[in-house]
Amino acid sequence: MCGIAGLAGPDAVRHRTTVMTxxxxxxxxxxxxxxxxxxxxxxxxxAMNTLxxxxxxxxxxxxxxxxSGLLLAFNGEIYNFRxxxxxxxxxxxxxxxxxxxVLRAWVKIGPACLDGLDGMFALAxxxxxxxKLFLARDRLGEKPLYxxxxxxxxxxASEVTTLTGYGPAPLVLRPxxxxxETPVGVETPFQGIQLLAPATLLSFDVASGSLEQxxxxxxxxxxxxxxxxxxxxxxxxxxxxxxxxxRAPACDFALxxxxxxxxxxxxxxxxxxxxxxxxxxxxxxxxxSRIAARIAHxxxxxxxxxxxxxxxxxxxxxxxxxxxxxPMGNASTFSEYMAYRKxxxxxxxVVIGGxxxxxxxxxxxxxxxxxxxxxxxxxxxxxxxxxxxxxxxHPAGQELEPAGAVTRLVLxxxxxxxxxxxxxxxxxxxxxxxxxxxxxLSDLATAWRPLVMTSDKLASAYALERRSPxxxxxxxxxxxxxxxxxxxxxxxxxxxxxxxxxxxxGLPSEVWGSRDKVGxxxxxxxxxxxxxxxxxxAQIQFALTEAPSTLRPLLVGGLxxxxxxxxxxxxxxxxxxxxxxxxxxxxx
Length: 588
Fold this sequence. Notes:
Layout: E1 3-8, H1 16-24, E2 34-38, E3 44-49, E4 63-64, E5 71-78, H2 81-88, H3 98-109, E6 119-127, E7 132-137, E8 146-150, E9 153-157, H4 160-166, H5 175-179, E10 194-195, E11 200-205, E12 211-215, H6 229-243, E13 254-256, H7 261-270, E14 274-278, H8 289-299, E15 302-306, H9 310-324, H10 333-345, E16 350-352, H11 357-360, H12 365-372, H13 374-379, H14 386-389, H15 402-410, H16 419-430, H17 435-445, H18 448-461, E17 465-467, H19 473-481, H20 484-487, E18 488-490, E19 493-494, H21 496-504, H22 509-512, H23 524-528, H24 533-544, H25 552-557, H26 568-587
Helix pairs in contact: 1-4, 2-3, 6-19, 6-21, 9-26, 10-18, 15-16, 16-17, 24-26
């Protein structure tokens, strides 16, 4: 988990100090060294925060190829770098890392090398031979990368607030922040700053100021799987056994273990020495620590239980929001933050989590609601989801089209211009006639971004490298290709093929037989309507006295109490804390 920042333009070298400051502002992402370097033609300056994982004695970046002059700043991990080095005939010496492979592969075959990389990454590479800066992100956006174009220069960074330090960027309330709690696509709440889209390559010509972007990988281009369920399960079992262990580092690491299917299967396949779980007093429905304890015992791991309270939330909120850069809709934010803080206290540098299967293998109740209908889901015993199912209830003869149904289920606020519906409709259209694949692409276009970025940002705040083994390329592509019956056959039990793989591996029936998803959810929304109600009101009211008009609708909405599934109040509080953090940054 590193950080990158930089600037490209005709007079870039004159702004070395600015780039150095940008790099220093991200020092928590790479405590093993923050270094900046200029290109040979003086038209680019790159900075890199280095966190050494693969080799603790490796040299911090940026990295230079002396023969060509190519300069690279790199964030992430390429898990197959040694395999690809052999395939491409690229020598990797002792004390060299995956970044050296990327640099030499780019020299040898150019941007085409991206397709051979299996891992998580955000990179910046400047080529003085052509006067072009290249920015690229991994397939599913595990590593963030923001950029802005200003005065003929392109600036970029791993954190959006690093770019607000480069120059003014007024706050903007994107409509999606009311609709689904987060910006979508490439938008950010800062005017003029964009997030580079996943699997995207951006090229910036310093001389002309022209900019081009291209998608270098598309999940929907995968061909459908051919074969019956027995063959599919065999293929899935082999890919899991091959790919998951590759994501385990040689050093000590911790696993986020909720007690659910995804994290428990990772525990059996990766055998972490330490497992971390989170529970809350008096919240039995959110407590899976008993199952987590059994899994940890089975694999011989130490189980560390984190038990946060209301005082913890009030205390850590400012730092949590500073780490996030801006509000994001993720029900597990607080639990993740507290888990990462504990892992850092233990002196561990790598943490493993279970992102991916829910989106790829129909693990959410909303998927079952679209595929089977609300009546079938409720009859299957998921009565707790009655409020969600009610969103799809309609008079006889007025069936909802799939995109409309999905939109109703993901919306948490108004969508007057139909922006979310259009986004969902486009995603489902790209999937063709396969509704399950359409649901996956819809998730990746809406709810996925805050999940994956929360994991990166909160872990990085504590100098941790977050790895998500289920996002291995072969596993992602195989999961997408499978027919719907491999993913879900029972309205109350998605991820069918993963459940059967877990059963075959000998996991307890409480894991593979569970019919309700809990994960690392927290009772924060309940706290904000109970013991923290007065405090939350005060925080929101204070922000309202200074907030620009664009933010007022979101803040005002949080002054009303909500129901069990309503996160409006929490979103308003996070926004208030974010605005306060921005105000402090601007003043300093």
